[in-house]
């Protein structure tokens, strides 16, 4: 999903690392209890990266928050796009989305489950190519996750107020209320955090307006 920004950030002189979580992209499902944040930390250790900025979207933003809270000395900057938040109770709208998605998958209607995600997560300005990309990514995720064993997360306690990273939380005006409220509320939880709402965006601004999002990233990273 970061292909549109990849070359722009490289050309600006940044060293980039991107990873799929387990059961996404080409990364196989986990077979034992795990946490995505632990996986990311192990990757950074393996690459001998002691400090890094983190750019993350949606569920990846939740992992970024956890990473920055548990190991604040490792994360220097945190740019979150439509982020989820650890431990936050879901709204009725988000629970209804989950119920409908589960019903469609259990009925074997993969096409309808994919379309539900496309219509839920993309804002009104998303073009046909963007919708096709999200369809492809979501179908791939469903296919990989359908083979995943039932594995529980490792429980870990942490406090978001421990985050030291310079933080910008971005929301989309056409997103579900959960994610707009999370982004707007983070400055009350994370010291020095800022909130920015994009009037044109849904849940996936990096795909909806790739060039605009790339400029936002560069502005934040070079400030």
From TrEMBL:
Pfam families: Abhydrolase_1. It comes from the Bacteria. One of its GO terms (cellular component) is membrane. GO terms for molecular function: hydrolase activity. The keyword Hydrolase applies. Keywords: Hydrolase. InterPro entries: AB_hydrolase_1 (IPR000073), AB_hydrolase_fold (IPR029058), AB_hydrolase_sf (IPR050266). This is Alpha/beta fold hydrolase.
């Amino acid at each position: 999903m970061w292909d549109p920004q990849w070359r722009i950030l490289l050309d600006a002189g940044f060293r980039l690392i991107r990873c799929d979580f387990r059961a996404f992209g080409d990364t196989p499902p986990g077979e034992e209890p795990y946490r995505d944040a632990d996986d990311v930390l192990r990757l950074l250790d393996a690459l001998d990266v002691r400090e890094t900025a983190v750019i993350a979207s949606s569920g990846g933003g939740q992992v970024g928050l956890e990473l920055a809270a548990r190991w604040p000395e490792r994360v220097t900057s945190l740019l979150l796009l439509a982020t989820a938040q650890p431990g936050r109770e879901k709204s009725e709208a988000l629970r209804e989305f989950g119920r409908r998605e589960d019903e469609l998958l259990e009925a074997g209607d993969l096409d309808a489950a994919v379309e539900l995600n496309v219509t839920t997560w993309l804002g009104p300005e998303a073009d046909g190519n963007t919708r096709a990309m999200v369809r492809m990514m979501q179908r791939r995720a469903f296919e990989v996750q359908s083979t995943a064993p039932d594995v529980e997360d490792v429980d870990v306690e942490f406090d978001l107020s421990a985050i030291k990273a310079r933080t910008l939380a971005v929301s989309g005006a056409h997103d579900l209320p959960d994610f707009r409220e999370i982004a707007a509320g983070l400055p009350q939880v994370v010291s020095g955090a800022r909130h920015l709402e994009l009037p044109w965006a849904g849940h996936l601004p990096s795909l909806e307006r790739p060039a605009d999002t790339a400029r936002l990233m560069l502005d934040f990273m070079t400030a």
